């Protein structure tokens, strides 16, 4: 049993009046970073199991780390989680707040948690949100992480929830774009999300039968891209290029623009699709158009797989809290949900390996 529960048991024994209300453990839940299909499914599973199996009570922190930082809370119990399983987004709201970028950020969080009687946190997020959780855990905050991101770039887990939905949306878009590309003899460039990792591009490009897949892990050669475009036109079909927003050309071969930076220091991306379409058109003389899927990939209802994964993550995360196994993150390995140290999930990004990328190369061009 955890320190949390030992302390709880000791204080109620001292009071010598067993009042079940007094021994309910209060758990905070927050969702941070980009919204992601399946967040609500996690919240629902955490709350339903926490209340029914462990007699816990919950407080919802609003908008990621901004919630505990500014003490922005909402009621969170079984009534609040009814009906939310298929809903996209997050009932708790989200933000990219980084308490470590604020002078007294950590002190404000710890004092607000204490004032609210919150003994442990379930933090649902990606690299940045769980990176903060990792550092807070090292400072003694009791926290269990749940890995979310459509990018699928967290280590320690085979998949993050949200990824499957994003891949399905992108893959359907590619299917639809094939017909326009062929009818108009155009190049269609589809820009998908993926800042550092090309998982969405790779999986949707494979499932949608794209002719060219460009990912951040492998700087592209624009001459080779144009040669593949031309060889595709030679087959009387039209090329579809799937490009991750973070993909870059081999240094010095094509100019790019860069955008603003968020609180975690990430450049706001977007633009490679347009840039690439213009370059291809200029070099090959074939009409080229770009489609930027953007936040459509994160919106709407999660796929069945993401609902299943998010639900299992939630069920296992609250059990980890109950057992006092803090500083951990739930993860999917094979078909099992396991716990890994938070630092393992957030330490290094999981990117596409050369082997995984090369595997599909025979189908490209
Ligand atoms: O959360 C991950 C992600 O969707 C990335 O794929 C993308 O680079 C980023 O978020 C976009 O963030 P924002 O919603 O702030 O534009």
Layout of helices and strands, plus pairs?
Blueprint lengths: L2 H13 L10 E6 L7 H16 L2 E5 L4 H5 L2 E4 L1 H4 L23 H11 L4 E6 L1 H12 L4 E5 L15 H22 L2 E6 L6 H10 L3 E3 L7 H13 L5 E5 L27 H13 L3 E5 L11 H19 L5 E6 L2 E6 H6 L6 H6 L6
Parallel strand pairs: 1-2, 1-4, 4-5, 5-10, 6-8, 6-9, 7-8
Antiparallel strand pairs: 2-3, 10-11
Helix pairs in contact: 2-11, 7-8, 9-10
Low-confidence stretches: 1-18
- The general outline is elongated
Tell me the distance between the termini: 58 Å
State the total count of DSSP E strands. Answer: 11
Description:
This protein has 365 residues and is α/β, with parallel strands linked by helices. It has two domains: 3-161 and 302-346, Rossmann fold (3-Layer(aba) Sandwich); 163-299, 3-Layer(aba) Sandwich (Rossmann fold). Helix content is 41%, strand content 16%. It is built from 13 helices and eleven strands. Strands 3-2-1-4-5-10-11 form a seven-stranded mixed sheet, sandwiched between helices. A four-stranded parallel sheet has the order 7-8-6-9, with helices on both faces. Helix 2 (39-54) packs parallel to helix 11 (304-322). It starts with a helix and ends in a 6-residue tail after the last helix. Bound molecules: 6-O-phosphono-beta-D-fructofuranose. 6-O-phosphono-beta-D-fructofuranose is lined by residues 33-34, 126, 149-151, 193-195, 245, 269, 298.
């Amino acid at each position: 049993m955890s320190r949390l529960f030992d302390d709880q048991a000791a204080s109620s024994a001292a009071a010598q009046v067993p009042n079940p209300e007094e021994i309910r453990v209060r758990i905070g839940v927050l969702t941070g970073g980009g919204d992601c299909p399946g967040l609500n499914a996690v919240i629902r599973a955490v709350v339903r199991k926490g209340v029914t199996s462990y007699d816990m009570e919950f407080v919802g922190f609003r908008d990621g780390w901004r919630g505990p930082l500014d003490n922005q809370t909402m009621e969170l119990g079984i009534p609040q989680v009814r009906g939310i399983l298929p809903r996209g987004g997050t009932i708790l709201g989200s933000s990219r707040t980084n308490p470590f970028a604020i002078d007294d950020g950590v002190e404000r969080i710890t004092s607000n948690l204490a004032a609210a009687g919150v003994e442990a946190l379930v933090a649902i997020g990606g690299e940045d949100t769980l990176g903060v959780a990792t550092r807070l855990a090292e400072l003694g905050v009791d926290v269990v992480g749940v890995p979310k991101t459509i990018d699928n770039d967290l280590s320690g887990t085979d998949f993050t929830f949200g990824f499957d939905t994003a891949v399905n949306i992108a893959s359907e878009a590619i299917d639809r774009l094939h017909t326009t590309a062929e009818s108009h003899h155009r190049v269609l460039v589809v820009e998908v999300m993926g800042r550092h990792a090309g998982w969405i591009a790779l999986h949707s490009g494979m499932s949608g039968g794209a002719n060219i897949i460009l990912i951040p892990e492998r700087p592209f050669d624009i001459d080779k891209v144009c040669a593949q475009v031309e060889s595709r036109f030679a087959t009387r079909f039209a090329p579809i290029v799937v490009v991750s927003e973070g993909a870059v050309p081999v240094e010095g071969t094509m100019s790019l623009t860069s955008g603003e930076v968020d609180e975690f220091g990430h450049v706001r991306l977007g633009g490679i699709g347009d840039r690439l379409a213009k370059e291809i058109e200029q070099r090959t003389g074939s009409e080229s158009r770009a489609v930027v899927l953007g936040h459509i990939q994160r919106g709407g209802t999660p796929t069945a797989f993401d609902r299943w994964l998010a639900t299992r993550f939630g069920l296992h995360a609250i059990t980890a809290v109950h057992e006092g196994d803090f500083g951990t993150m739930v993860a999917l390995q094979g078909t099992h949900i396991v716990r890994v140290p938070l630092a393992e999930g957030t330490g290094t990004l999981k990117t596409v390996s050369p082997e995984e990328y090369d595997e599909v190369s025979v189908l490209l061009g």
